[in-house]
UniProtKB/TrEMBL annotation, chains A, B:
<keyword id="KW-0238">DNA-binding</keyword>
<dbReference type="GO" id="GO:0003677">
    <property type="term" value="F:DNA binding"/>
</dbReference>
<dbReference type="InterPro" id="IPR001845">
    <property type="entry name" value="HTH_ArsR_DNA-bd_dom"/>
</dbReference>
<feature type="domain" description="HTH arsR-type">
    <location>
        <begin position="8"/>
        <end position="102"/>
    </location>
</feature>
<dbReference type="InterPro" id="IPR051011">
    <property type="entry name" value="Metal_resp_trans_reg"/>
</dbReference>
<dbReference type="Pfam" id="PF01022">
    <property type="entry name" value="HTH_5"/>
</dbReference>
<dbReference type="InterPro" id="IPR036390">
    <property type="entry name" value="WH_DNA-bd_sf"/>
</dbReference>
<protein>
    <submittedName>
        <fullName>Regulatory protein ArsR</fullName>
    </submittedName>
</protein>
<keyword id="KW-0805">Transcription regulation</keyword>
<dbReference type="InterPro" id="IPR011991">
    <property type="entry name" value="ArsR-like_HTH"/>
</dbReference>
<dbReference type="InterPro" id="IPR036388">
    <property type="entry name" value="WH-like_DNA-bd_sf"/>
</dbReference>
<keyword id="KW-0804">Transcription</keyword>
<dbReference type="GO" id="GO:0003700">
    <property type="term" value="F:DNA-binding transcription factor activity"/>
</dbReference>
Length: 103, 103
DNA sequence: CCAACATATAAACACCTATTCATATATCGA
DNA sequence: TCGATATATGAATAGGTGTTTATATGTTGG
């Protein structure tokens, strides 16, 4: 178990940073937040967020590679979901940080 | 109060994304993690992480602007600290996501 | 005031990445 | 199988960004 964050090895922090970087793009963050509400197809995400299906697909591939999103085929479409609940915690904590910061 | 993350306006998610983007750089993330252990001067951060003081100063300016870090003068050096506790939560949650993902 | 130290700032560069456009793959209905 | 739909992939590009180098600002002690 990890007691102090300072014990993190360099390559671990690199992986961590990669995760944060993925959430650091507005389009991708919106996609993740949309997925938190429940599984969605590529097309419905694109429509909701006014993004091209191609762009959404690109982003989803990265999110999948980082285990942030998972996918499952449903007919001719792909249903994407958020892989685990920690992502929701991460985002909610950051929302609190931002809203508290607003004086 | 915010019930669902999907209620976030576009400009709010943009601010959120900016926060994540800041943690998305390895050097900056290491700086933040180092600061979680307690206040540090620019020079000591640079020494600890083997980064140039100039680079550390650059990053700290961005972290300050995002209210992730705060600073206070102590003699001729500046003591930097993490602004609030949510940042620690965010990072710890992400650590859990990453370590769980490793099968 | 002056030298030494600590931090900040500015410009420049190399690298990365988000987006678009075009094309490919895959699934279903007829 | 064929056309239509849904998603994925590849190349190309424009804009952004981390890092370095050089210089400036500010603080302490003499």
């Amino acid at each position: 178990m990890l007691k102090h964050l300072t014990q993190l090895a360099d390559d671990h922090t690199a992986v961590l940073a990669d995760m944060f970087k993925l959430l650091g793009d507005p389009s991708r963050l919106k996609i993740v937040i949309a997925l938190l509400d429940g599984p969605l197809s590529v097309g419905s995400i694109a429509e909701r967020l006014s993004l091209s299906p191609s762009l959404v697909s690109h982003h989803l591939r990265l999110l999948r590679a980082a285990r942030i999103a998972s996918h499952e085929r449903r007919g001719r479409q792909m249903l994407y979901s958020v892989h685990d609940h920690h992502i929701r915690c991460v985002i909610e904590d950051m929302v609190e940080h931002v809203t508290e910061g607003a004086d």
